[in-house]
Each structure stands twice: as C-alpha cells, then as structure tokens.
Write a structure and sequence with these properties.
The complex is a heterodimer of chains A (about 230) and B (about 750). Chain A is built from 5 helices and 11 strands, in the order βαββαβαββββαβββα. With about 230 residues, chain A is of the alpha/beta class. Chain B is built from 26 helices and 30 strands. By secondary structure, chain B is α+β, with helices and mostly antiparallel strands. The chains are: A alpha/beta (about 230), B alpha+beta (about 750).
C-alpha cells in the first residue's frame, strides 16, 4: 500500500499539517511533507492543503497562501487530474486560488466553533468519496471561524445542478436543518468539488476523524477512497 | 533623588518604587541610578517580578519530589513522566490587562504562558484557562467574558495548541476585578530540557521574533503591581498587542533550534522585557552581559534606552547561542520568516551593561536586579466580620423550596450550567491527541505514539476562600487531585496562580498566608509538589477586592488512556458513592443560589481520606472496574448525578438515606467523595478495594431510563434537565437584557 504518496503542504501558520501527515500514515499511505516555498510536490500522487491560519489569515483567510510558490505546482497537479484535498484553511485557499467555486465567510454566529458534527455525503463521484455511498452520514469535527460557504446565485445553481456538492451538514440520521448547520453555510454545504471531482474542499476535518481514541471516525472512508483512487491511477 | 516627573512626583515613585527601595538601589550602586537604570530596577523589583511580598510565605510550599526535574524559579516547572518524556507546565495571571482590554489582555496572557513553556525547549500541547467574572446579568461582565473568551480563542486557535480545559465561575466580587489565568503544558524529551544558567562568557544573545516597540512599557510595575483606579482606561497603552501568527512561527523556529542542539539557553521576553531575560540569564550563569541597544530591531524610531530595556513587546525570545552556531541559528529563523539579531554577549564581570554607539547608557550588577529586591514581611490581620460570616451557617436553615425545584434552579445558574458556550469557541482537537477536552472532570491528552496520557485540571473555589482561606487553599489542591483521579490518572504535581487584593492591606496578607498554608498541607498530603506558578496581587479597584482566589493546575499521569474514566452515565450500571456525606452546606452553591447567603464554614477536609479516595479511584480505574466517575463537590450529589445523566443521556434511580434532611444530602459539597458507576458484577471487587483503602462505599441505585428518580422525593426527565443546563448561558447572551 505504501505506493500512494500524499503531499501535505506546510504554509507559515499551517496548524493541522502534522495531523494530516499522521492521518496519511495511519491509513497506509506515504506522507510527504512539502514546504510552501518549494516549487514541486516531491513526486506526490495526491496533495492535501491542511487547516490552520496560513499567513495569520492576514487580509482574508487563504488570500496570501494562494500566491505561495508551491501553489503553481498544486494547480498543475489539479490540471492533470491529480487529487487535491483542501481541509478548512486549505478549502479557503483553493477557493481563493480559483480551483474551487464559492467563498468561505465569517460564521453566522460570528464566533469560532469547535464541535463534532455530521455530514451527509452527496456524491461518490470524487477522488475522496468513491468508497462512500451517496446519502451516507459521517461523523467529523469542525473548528473554524470562517466556514460559511457562499456563492453568487448563478454559481450556486451550477454547483447544485452539476452535483458538485460533496457534503452537507446534517443530523445524525441525515436530515437537513439549521440546527445541524454550525456556520450558516448556504444549502448546508460543508464541501464542494471541481467539475472533474479530483479537487475537493471541505470545512470539517477528516484527518481528525480516523482514530476512535481521539474522535469520531468519519474521515476513514475519505482517506480510503483517496488511497484507492491513487493506486488505481498508478 | 530622581529627576521630577509631572506633578512634581519623583520618577521612582511614578515607576512604582518606594522611597526606601530607591535608597536601596542608590546604596547598592554607590550612586544615583539614571533614568534607564531606574526603569530596569522598577520593573525587576516590581511585585510581579520579584515576589517581594509573597516570597516569605511561598517557602512553605513543598517543591521537591522524585518526579520534579525543575522546580520553581525558572520559566516553567518540569516533571518527569518516565520513559524519557518530561512535561513543562505553568500557570499565570493576565487579569489586570484583561480588565482594561479583554481581548488583547487575554490573548497576550496565552502568548506569554506559551513562551514560558517554550523556554524549557518543550512543545506546547495543551492550554487551560480558569476564568472568574462578575454575574452575567451585568452588561459589562458579559462584555468582559465575550472579549476574554474571544481573545483566548483568537490566540490559542491560531497557534495550533488545543485549549482542553479550564473553568469559569461567577461571583459579584469579581465584577470590577475579573480573574483571567492561563495555563500551558508542554512536552520535551527529558534529556533535552533547556535549563537557565547554561551560558558562559562569550556566548551570544540572539533576539528572535517581533520587533521591539513602545507597547507594554511599565506593564509589570504599573499594571500588574498596582490597584486599578478610575483612571485605568488611560493605562490601555500599557496593554500589549497580540500577534499569534508571529508566535506560531516563533514556536516552530525555537523548537527546530532546540532539536538541532543549537541552544545553550532560551528565555521568554515577558514582564520587564529584555532587562528580565538578560539579567536572569546572566545571574543564573554567574556571569554578566553586554547589550548593544542599537542592535535591537525597533518598530519605531526615537525610542529611549529605558523604553527599549523594559518594553514588553510580545512574541520575542532570547536565545543564548555559541558563536559557532550563530549562522545555523539565523538560517533557521530566516526559514520561518523571523528576524534575528545578535544584541549582546555574556561577559565574565557580573555586570549588565547596555551601550549605544559604544557609550554605556545603563549599568548594574545583574544579580542585584534579580536577587536584591527587598523581601517584605507585611503585617497580617484577620478580616473584620469573618467570624460573623462563618457563624452564619446555612446548613439547617429551613429550605424555601423543595429539593426538586432547587435542583432545577441550580442546573440553570451560570456557576453550574454547561460552559459549552465558552469551550466550543476554542480549538480543542488540533495536534490530534485530545482524548478528552472540556466538560468532564479533567482533560486527557495522549502522549504521541504511546498509550500513556496526561490528565489536567484547574480548580479553585472563591466562596471557600472567603470563608476560610486555609480551607480554600487546601480544597483547591484536593479538588484538582480528585478531578484528575476521576479520569483514572495519578496526580503528579501542581502549578498555581494566587489571585489576591493588595498585599499592603493586612487582611489580604493574612488570607494569602492562610491560603498558602492550606495549599502546602494539601500538596504534602497528596504527594503533589508545587513546581512553579504565579502570584497576582493588587486585584482590586476602588474599595472592591477579589476574594482569595487560589487556582491550582494539577498534572496527572494515566498509564493507559484506553482505561480513562468518562463522566457520562450509561444504562445497566450500579451507582455508588465513595466517601461520606456530611451536613455541610456552608459556602455551597445551594446556599448561595437557593438560600441567598454565602455564610458558614466550608466543608471540612481530611487530607488522609482524600489521599485514600484518590488512590482508590486510580486503582479501580487501572483494573478496569469502573464505568465512569464524577466529582460531586460543585453543587453536591444531585447536581453531579444530573450532570452525568445529561452527559450520557441516561437516567437513574437512587434512594436517599434517612439520616440527613434531603436537601442536605443532595446539595452538601462534602469533600473526598466521588460518584462512580460500574457493572453490577464488579461491585464486590470495588467494595473490597474500598475496604482496604478505608474509603466508605454506599450503593446509591441503578442507571437507565429517561428520568432521574430521587427516591420518593422527586424526579426529573433527563431531556428537560439538559435543556435547562445547556441553554442557561447562551440565553443570557441572546436576551442581552436582565437588569444590571
């Protein structure tokens, strides 16, 4: 299994980079640490942009990280159909870089929220959800102050119409409702994909949802899907 | 004498030095100090830095033990966890700045305590924040709580250190004087702990991190060592500004330097800025130091020497580096985007000398700054009215409401109600090792790659301290140890933060002495030495002072985190009470909330019994006998049972013994007790362990069902209790009303 090399990019201010590296190792992949100033991804098969406050969230979350030298390599990798997962701040960076539609704004409650939530997987047609069935509910934590997904009506119609919503916040039984939505995201959206399904961004933290000793386990199928996808490509 | 400042006041007085202290400086130097030297002494000899009023009493605290690697006196205490791992931990107050500017005050408090742990070469792995405010009915208290919580989150969340615990309590006496303490815990290989005093002449002083500005000048002497007056708003420029992004880079760079073996020493620039860092480094190394003030990167031009020397600009560290390692050190700092500058070197002559362009602008023996501050034995007196307060015992007062109504009311008061509103604003899971965060008796953080875990709890009950400061101090230690044992961990060592009013008032000094005496006795009895901490005096404004507020941070060790005990009920178990319930409603939550009085004597404390209970819990958890445990000392048995039921969404039925009135049995806060639940088949084993430890054990009832049934007295649906418990604090913010 150690064939799958998964790069995790560390920007100044990345916080969950070590957690993402640990998660890759835990799930049987080969973690590849990559520095924001690097020009390449160390021959990785897949890339994770981890959570945190890259560049201190100065200006806007993700607004500066998109200009980091490594981002050209990330864009090239995405262009070639390689899997890219943005988690939390990584999702914000992918939106800022134009690799994913929409934007993430201040939570509806105006406060940071750290909580275990449930998300409903809406599509199996991405590199990260191929082993998950649409409608399946996963337990994962969120922790963010700016995670409210928004998009202009036209973009929103396109994302929904093309089935690119990957996750929605929901009850433990999969029902939708404001009480299950931790940040006021439009249509309860927790994660979206690009049109090819190889680039996915999500606010919840799958890397903190693998080990039952320290949290829920809803992240396991996402990493399994990723590693399978990579091995199928190789 | 010093040159006159505004309004004809001599400079030394404006800086917080007494005339006698000024004379002592003149005698020591053999001349009058100049402006810069005076500022250095004022900062180093401030109450905050020198502990001049508390030292004489703090010596009573036990500080030794086989587990202690570094005791009090360095940036953090360090405890040996075995298997080559050491734990650095410390607690500190940032109450004064937080009262003036809650967001920045709390944020910089977190930053400062993190750097104290970093100074030992340890990676910060957990934060806990004990907070005390006035009642939430008051707009200002809600503003303070919101700001402080936002500041703690804004900083902790951004540096990637999980906030796993702390507590929040409310007391009218904390209205004008909120208490904001922060505790940080770090891990370091035991053979790589950075000790102060390692440097030798010729070693370089390298300043790393943010530039030095005019912020925070006089922070320790003006803000932290004086009573807040009506003009405190004008002190706002003395509050430093936080930059957590810079701190995150500083953490990573310093740890990389430490791992690379490039550091002889590492010092935090906190209170008293570079003066403190350099004089402590030199004094501990038995050397002197030369500082080139022109080499210090400044944020603004035209800074005076005294400003540069005492600035408390945040996110700076002083590395002591051998000349051969300088290039590698600067390379690592550069990689993390941090400025680094050689600002001086250690010398052989014992003097701390600051130069500008070759010219000496300040010079003093390094040791005189760190060690020669006066030590005061301040007068002490029992506070007026204490006897009357204690005589006003509420235990046998006629209950104004039935016990069912009392429980419903207690679950909805902010002291008891769920603090989810607070802890959901903190990232508690980053770093991936949080086995248990806020909401239980103690937090549990796994040691990476190991089954072992540390358990952490902070405690301190101001009501007890006011009624009996000795018991207040002792209970804080006992409760913290009990909480750590309630998750199955063995208590190891203590850090503390002692929050008091002005030491110049004899009644404050008496309560301080009594508190320390109580803590010392409890720490000795429980085998948990004090490895460091902080004294915060002058927590008063106008004629209002904080009650004696000793806060204890307890570190415990859990051998296998899979055997951790939770505090959520599950069905089909037998409920037992370990320990004994006495008729003790004095200082209880019931007394304050239901009877409207805070009189009487706090619960008694038999330290031998407490030690027996702690040992029993650890042993029973280690043998996997228990399903869970919870400490009933906050609100009594009824509240603790309800909390466990709400946490597990599981009811129970208990029978009440006939020997105490129901409200006494249900709400007494007697110490040295724990509620435990276990498989019925395991009860006999627990009974024999309890017998061997001489801990009384009583079967209370069974768990299961949707309701909490208290014998014939009353019952309450778990779901109904949960709504009251969870909604109480959010509702106070939503309505934003309630007469203030």
């Amino acid at each position: 299994m150690s064939g799958a090399r998964v790069a995790v990019v560390t920007f100044p201010g990345s916080l969950d980079d070590r957690d993402a590296l640990r998660a890759v190792r835990l799930m049987g992949g080969e973690p590849v640490p990559v520095w924001h100033a690097d020009a390449d991804l160390g021959h990785a098969d897949a890339v994770i942009l981890p959570g945190g406050f890259s560049y201190g969230d100065h200006l806007r979350a993700g607004a500066i990280a998109r200009f980091a030298p490594v981002m050209a390599a990330v864009a090239g990798h995405a262009e070639r159909g390689g899997p890219v997962l943005g988690i939390c701040n990584g999702f914000q960076i992918l939106c800022e870089a134009g690799l994913l539609p929409g934007a993430l704004t201040r939570n509806a409650g105006l406060a940071f929220v750290c909580r275990r939530v449930h998300v409903r997987c809406e599509t199996a047609a991405t590199a990260f959800t191929s082993t998950v069935e649409a409608g399946e509910v996963l337990g994962v934590p969120v922790k963010h102050g700016e995670g409210r997904f928004v998009a202009d009506p036209e973009t929103m119609a396109r994302i929904e119409g093309e089935g690119r919503v990957v996750f929605r916040y929901c009850s433990p039984r999969g029902e939708l409702g404001d009480e299950w939505n931790p940040n006021g995201a439009t249509n309860h959206i927790a994660g979206v994909a690009n049109d090819r399904g190889n680039v996915v961004g999500m606010m919840p933290h799958p890397e903190h949802a693998l080990d039952p000793d320290v949290g829920p386990t809803g992240g396991q199928p996402l990493f399994e899907s990723l590693l399978q996808f990579v091995l199928a490509e190789v | 004498m010093g040159e006159p400042a505004g309004r004809g006041e001599p400079v030394h007085r404006a800086l917080g030095l007494t005339d006698q202290e000024h004379e002592r400086i003149v005698d020591g130097l053999g001349r009058s100090p100049n402006r810069a030297e005076l500022a250095m002494y004022a900062a180093m000899w401030s109450e905050h830095c020198s502990y001049k009023s508390s030292k004489v009493h703090l010596r009573d605290l036990p500080t030794d033990g086989p587990q202690v690697l570094v005791g009090p006196g360095e940036d953090s205490g360090v405890v040996d966890l075995g298997e080559g791992v050491a734990c650095a931990f410390k607690m500190e107050s940032h109450s004064h700045p937080s009262a003036i500017e809650p967001y920045q005050g709390a944020a910089t408090g977190v930053g400062g305590i993190v750097r104290d742990v970093l100074s030992m070469g340890a990676r910060p792995v957990a934060l806990l924040d004990p907070l005390r405010f006035g009642p939430l009915e008051d707009d200002r208290n809600r503003w303070l709580l919101s700001g402080v919580v936002a500041g703690i989150g804004g900083y902790g969340n951004c540096i990637g250190v999980p906030t796993v615990g702390g507590e929040v309590r409310f007391d009218p006496a904390h209205g004008p004087n909120p208490t904001v303490n922060a505790m940080c815990v770090g891990l370091v290989p035991a053979d790589r702990v950075l000790r102060a005093g390692g440097g030798e002449p010729g070693d370089l002083l390298v300043l790393i991190g943010s530039r030095t500005g005019r912020d925070g000048i006089g922070g320790v002497s003006v803000l932290a060592s004086r009573t807040l007056g009506r003009e405190s708003e004008a002190d706002r420029p003395s509050v430093q500004i936080a930059d957590p992004f810079a701190e995150k880079l500083l953490i990573e760079a310093c740890l990389e330097l430490a791992e690379g073996g490039l550091l002889v020493g590492l010092q935090d620039l906190g209170g008293a800025g570079i003066t403190c860092a350099v004089s402590e480094t030199a004094a501990r190394a038995g050397s002197g130091a030369e500082l080139d003030l022109e080499a210090i990167p400044l944020r603004e031009p035209g800074m005076e020497p005294f400003e540069i020397l005492t600035s408390e600009s945040q996110e700076r560290m002083l590395a002591i580096v051998r000349p051969d390692d300088l290039a590698a050190t600067r390379r690592i700092c550069g990689r993390w985007g941090l400025e680094s500058a050689v600002v001086g070197r250690l010398t052989a002559d014992g003097a701390l000398r600051a130069r500008i362009g070759g010219q000496v602008v300040a010079e003093a023996p390094a040791r005189s700054l760190t060690d020669d501050a006066p030590e005061y034995r301040r007068p002490m007196a029992v506070p007026d009215g204490l006897d009357d307060l204690v005589a006003d015992d509420p235990t046998f007062a006629a209950p104004p409401v039935g016990p069912g109504e009392a429980l419903v009311r207690l679950l909805g008061v902010p002291n008891v109600a769920s603090k989810r509103w607070v802890w959901e604003r903190y990232d508690s899971i980053v770093q991936g090792n949080t086995v248990a965060g806020s909401g239980g008796d103690a937090a549990v953080v796994r040691l990476e790659g190991s089954l072992r875990a540390i358990a952490l709890s902070t405690d301190g009950n101001g009501r007890y301290g006011r009624l009996d400061p000795y018991l207040g101090g002792a209970h804080a230690v006992a409760e913290a140890a009990r909480n750590v044992a309630c998750v199955g961990a063995r208590p190891l060592a203590v850090t503390n933060c002692l929050n008091f009013g002005s030491p110049e008032r004899p009644e404050v000094m008496w309560t301080f002495r009594e508190t320390v005496r109580g803590m010392a006795d409890a720490c000795r009895a429980l085998g948990t030495p004090v490895t460091g901490g902080n004294v915060s005096f002058y927590n008063e404004s106008g004629d209002s002072s904080v009650p004696p507020t000793p806060i204890v941070g307890m570190l415990g060790l859990l051998e296998d985190h899979r055997l951790r005990l939770g505090s959520a009920l599950s069905p089909g178990m037998t409920l037992c009470l370990l320990g004994e319930t006495f008729a003790e409603l004095g200082g209880s939550e019931y007394s304050e909330t239901i009877l409207g009085t805070v009189g009487g004597r706090p619960p008694g404390l038999d330290l031998e019994r407490e030690a027996g209970l702690v040992a029993l819990l650890v042993e029973a958890a280690g043998r996997d006998l228990l399903g869970g445990a919870h400490d009933p000392s906050d609100g009594g048995l009824a509240v603790a049972l309800a909390e466990a039921a709400i946490a597990g969404d599981c009811g129970f039925a208990v029978s009440l013994p006939g020997d105490l009135p129901p409200q006494v049995w249900l709400f007494s806060e007697s110490a040295s007790r724990a509620i435990v639940w276990l498989e019925p088949s395991a009860v006999a084993d627990l009974e024999s362990l309890a017998l061997a430890r001489d801990v009384p054990l009583a079967r209370l009832g069974e768990t299961g069902g949707p309701r909490m049934v208290f014998g014939e007295e009353f019952e309450l649906a778990v779901a109904e209790a949960a709504v009251i418990y969870e909604d109480a604090i959010p509702r106070m913010f939503e309505s934003g009303r309630l007469a203030g």
